Amino acid sequence: MSTVNSFGAKSTLTVGSTDYEIYRIDAVEGYEKLPYSLKVLLENLLRTEDGANVTREQIASIGNWDAKGETSSEIQFTPARVVMQDFTGVPCIVDLATMREAVADLGGDPTKINPLAPAELVIDHSVIADLFGRADAYERNTEIEYERNGERYQFLRWGQTAFDDFKVVPPGTGIVHQVNIEHLARTTYTREVNGVVQAYPDTCVGTDSHTTMVNGLGVLGWGVGGIEAEAAMLGQPVSMLIPKVVGFRLTGEIPAGVTATDVVLTITDMLRQHGVVGKFVEFYGDGVGKVPLANRATIGNMSPEFGSTAAMFPVDDVTLDYLRLTGRSEEQLALVEAYAKEQHMWHDPSVEPAFSEYLELDLSTVVPSISGPKRPQDRIELTRSKEQFAKDLPVYTDVASKPSAVSGVTGEYTIDHGAVTIAAITSCTNTSNPSVMLAAGLLARNAVAKGLTAQPWVKTTMAPGSKVVTEYYEKAGLNEDLEKLGFYTVGYGCTTCIGNSGPLIEEVSEAINENDLAVTAVLSGNRNFEGRINPDVKMNYLASPPLVIAYALAGSMNFDFDNDALGQDQDGNDVYLKDIWPSADEVQSTIDSSINTEMFTRQYAGVFEGDERWKNLPTPTGNTFEWADESTYVRKPPYFDGMTLELTPVSDIEGARVLAKLGDSVTTDHISPAGAIKADTPAGRYLQEHGIERRNFNSYGSRRGNHEVMIRGTFANIRLRNQLLDGVEGGYTRDFTQEGAPQSFIYDAAQNYAAQDTPLVVLGGKEYGSGSSRDWAAKGTRLLGVKAVITESFERIHRSNLIGMGVVPLQFPEGESVESLGLDGTESFSITGLTELNEGVTPKTVRVTAQPSEHSPAGKKTVEFDAVVRIDTPGEADYYRNGGILQYVLRSLV
């Protein structure tokens, strides 16, 4: 791509004996007052300026950024690379594989289809903690994982060999965000462009919301939906507004007895109260240099929980020390330092950039905390946890005590409301941070020395973020103490945090369900939403790894660590939490003596190679994938069926029917397939017809590579309210192709409309498509036959995703709505004026005519209005003309 370079920013940076082409941000007036994160965006635009997608005006708008003003300036951000996990990454690779066949069908060279931005996928979302508390738990869980997911893994292994610039980290290695900070992230990226080696800030987008963990390393990145990730992989920019930046000053130091987890729960609480949705948060001030990098990563990781797009730490000596510890080369370290200093991106605590808003935290004021029972921002000081539990319990159950006798392998015991049934050291947020992981190991050692044991009803699991953790546990001799308390490693992956907690102890589960007990889970994760962790568990709490172990010993949320004893020692003395809590000095000296660079170098030496299981997978070869007719996990989607090299002209929409009439705040979670697949649904029926037993249905997430399952789960959320029906929840609609327009599944009705060549529209209210942006919310909408979505307002990412799938987003005229216009959804819709796009013009509005049909009430009149066309950029207009972003890229490559 040739750069216009209208600011004359192109320059050379020499580090050692190597020359790098760089784009100097000091060529743009106003650069010096910008926060670090906006300097990164400024460099990005300078380097990618092409005069069309990225213009001189966009670059100047960052230089002229008004910290206090409202920004409406849209920019096109081109990330250096893309990071994926296996649930959301599989559909991206399915689409690339399908594009290869489409290129071949159009007479082109299929090997031309490769990621244009480097893409890395880490398989970490599929391991489930089925077995626990025993030495072979890891081995057996991995075997079961391969049995369940073999088809997907074969496909990803084919992708690893077939595509250039696409790498796969096999199962059992670690969690994507951990592997990202320990190995994949460069902080300063280098790439050969047109025969010259360029250096520029490492940036990334990821298909998982906690991609922000890498912000701790000075890398700007965040989570996006699968469609934007695919677009970024194919060299397309991410469209975004220049954000507000909230400056967060850190002062003081963390006191003894307080963990990084306590700090992050405090920051989450503060930022949620302040309101940072859609903004960047950036940390600055004297305290930043005292925050270890693992703690910075822990804070960055929780960005989705406090709602910001990113949570940045600038580059400084702490960044360099971490890069050195984790085995990055001396050449890379020299480049990172030289580049950051040359580009005015090195953190200087004495300089305060301009920020939109300001917050401050004195780290010395943080106290031990947990968070729950259902949101990450519901912080509770540990000293108040017992009384807060008593206050929260009535929301979940009849509070009368229900002691329930349980007879298990370990003998007889009694559980009641508040029983801790899962204690899980899990998730990317904490399981990489040596200060909390070694504190947990030392607490376990002290507990074992006092003769304490975990309660028999607690499912205890350990899922480290990377294999380095296991190695430093072994070097410190702490693994045996952890295992004596039941914390055997169950796998290297997300496990409990994403609901892969596996079943509870069988007799405990029976007692819970027989007696309607409100039991609890305590996990070192970042998500504790209702129903997420385990179907038997009503109340979920986030806590640091050492507190997870403390709660396994206590066995109940109805416990006061200050005044209740955890048990007795060998001499019959009461043992309290303070008696076994390790000192800060002991934790630090253990870190110093048990972690070294060789561990990282050794564990990551063959990170893309995998174990014998991975290497022995029977894997297809060849440039195009051999789709298996019998596969229910990976299918070839129909996006390119019948596609030609010539554009099919955009046509107006005639005689469309309403598939769903929806209210305000319908989220992508309402639209996207998610969770378990029920037998009596279109997706369940499909799997049964293909010989899959109910116990092997797996989840929608694991079947994201099969559009047949996903389309049947679109608009099928059990909480969706389609106003075409009265008082009905779930994936249902009225089928206007049938006599009397009876209630039917949305998927079944869509099939009937397709058989009659009837286009479909969806009507909505305000904030349509908010929520974590999900690729299938747009893909499923398109595959159901929806041509237009008409709402009062859109969430930005879902709006662009709809265009990326060839669906036009339209808005009611200002101040109008479904109600004010008198639309009831029984009408037949026509939309005229879209054909202007064929002349290269994007119309501001189109004419919508809603005519009564045979199903409309008597006396209903025709309604006409001018809908606003929400195709907002030239790039989006190109995507829509081509029928979608994939078709646009395909034609441009052929």
Detailed description of the structure:
This protein is α/β, with parallel strands linked by helices and 894 residues long. It has 4 domains: 10-77, no CATH class; 81-365, Aconitase, domain 3, CATH 3.30.499.10; 370-595, Aconitase, domain 3, CATH 3.30.499; 653-673 and 722-893, Aconitase, domain 4 (Alpha-Beta Barrel), CATH 3.20.19. It is 32% helix and 18% strand. The protein has 30 helices and 34 strands. The strands form 11 sheets. The chain has a 7-stranded mixed beta barrel with strand order 26-29-30-31-34-33-32. Strands 6-5-4-9-10 form a 5-stranded parallel sheet, sandwiched between helices. Strands 14-13-12-15 form a 4-stranded parallel sheet, with helices on both faces. Strand 7 (188-193) and strand 8 (196-201) form a beta hairpin. Helix 1 packs antiparallel against helix 2 (56-63), helix 3 crosses helix 6 (226-233) and helix 10 (317-325) runs antiparallel to helix 11 (330-342). The longest helix has 26 residues, at 137-162. It is globular and about 85 Å long. It starts with 9 loop residues before the first strand and ends with a helix. The model has no long low-confidence stretch (mean pLDDT 94).
